[in-house]
Amino acid sequence: MRFLLFAILLITSSYCSAQEQLAQYGFQVINIFPHNISSFTQGLVYHEGFIYEGTGKNGLSTLSKLNLEDAEVLMSKKLSRRYFGEGIEIFDGKIFQLTWRSNMVFVYDKDSFEQTGTHYNSTEGWGLTNDGQHLILSDGTATLQFINPETFVPERKVEVILNGNAVQNLNELEFINGEIWANVWMSDFILRIDPATGNVNSIVDLTGLENQTQLGSNESVLNGIAWDPEQERLFVTGKHWANLFEIELILK
């Protein structure tokens, strides 16, 4: 699947579709913050001045609330070792945390991290965000599901299409200014997706960002997008990265 993605992205230098040229963005680093290099980052959210992070691996999966400036852990909850934690999202005072292949979704009170419920997810759990009405879930395929946050039942789905091809391995998600932003696992690319059609509007190329941090393992790939809507700040990090970056996009 990853080889198909690279073939799609590299087929032309301009990433042209049949109808129009797809916008491409590079990046400029604005600020660098510490990040726990041992964290296998699966979900990242900026909310009310703090970073919320979900991590993975059986026996190591956590949900944490962190200071942005120094990565101090303010609150943390460890999952049972039977669960491999995945994406997280905050919606209506609740934190939702996916698990990879256990079909389990945990629901917590945002302020106390007390578990208040669970849901069943019929697919794998990868990334999670929301559009103000639905939770939006990725499961490692090219499909994004729009989930009822009360029942966790999918109400609609879209297939993500780039240059006429479905893009697999959609991972960590963020909803920014009416678009779904998706990390593509095992790549340096973030796709900006039209939630109505699934069409990719533009591509963010973060090639080289990993060279500006220490990497903690051979699984240290880009994964983690967070958005501060009040100050319009964009944060990104990776699995087992020693830093979290505030970046600004530059149109190529």
Explained architecture:
This protein is mainly β and 252 residues long. The chain has one domain: 6 Propeller (Neuraminidase), CATH 2.120.10. It has 1 helix and 22 strands. It has one helix spanning 2-10; strands spanning 23-34, 41-47, 50-55, 62-67, 73-78, 85-91, 94-99, 104-109, 115-120, 127-130, 135-138, 143-147, 154-159, 161-162, 165-166, 170-176, 179-184, 189-193, 200-205, 222-228, 233-238, 243-251.
Concise structural overview:
The protein has about 250 residues and is mostly beta strands. It has one helix at about 1-10; strands at about 25-35, 40-45, 50-55, 60-65, 75-80, 85-90, 95-100, 105-110, 115-120, 125-130, 135-140, 145, 155-160, 160, 165, 170-175, 180-185, 190-195, 200-205, 220-230, 235-240, 245-250.
Write the layout of secondary structure elements.
Elements lengths: L1 H9 L12 E12 L6 E7 L2 E6 L6 E6 L5 E6 L6 E7 L2 E6 L4 E6 L5 E6 L6 E4 L4 E4 L4 E5 L6 E6 L1 E2 L2 E2 L3 E7 L2 E6 L4 E5 L6 E6 L16 E7 L4 E6 L4 E9 L1
Parallel strand pairs: 1-19
Antiparallel strand pairs: 1-22, 2-3, 3-4, 4-5, 6-7, 7-8, 8-9, 10-11, 11-12, 12-13, 14-15, 16-17, 17-18, 18-19, 20-21, 21-22
Main beta-sheet strand count, sense and barrel state: 8 strands, mixed
Distance between the termini: 27 Å
Classified by CATH, the class is: Mainly Beta
What is the assigned CATH homologous superfamily? TolB, C-terminal domain
Structural class: mainly beta
Radius of gyration: 17 Å
Number of helices: 1
Order the strands across the largest sheet as they lie in space: 16-17-18-19-1-22-21-20
Question: What's the shape?
Answer: globular
Regions with pLDDT < 50 over 5+ consecutive residues?
1-5, 10-19
Give me the count of strands.
22
Helix content: under 10%
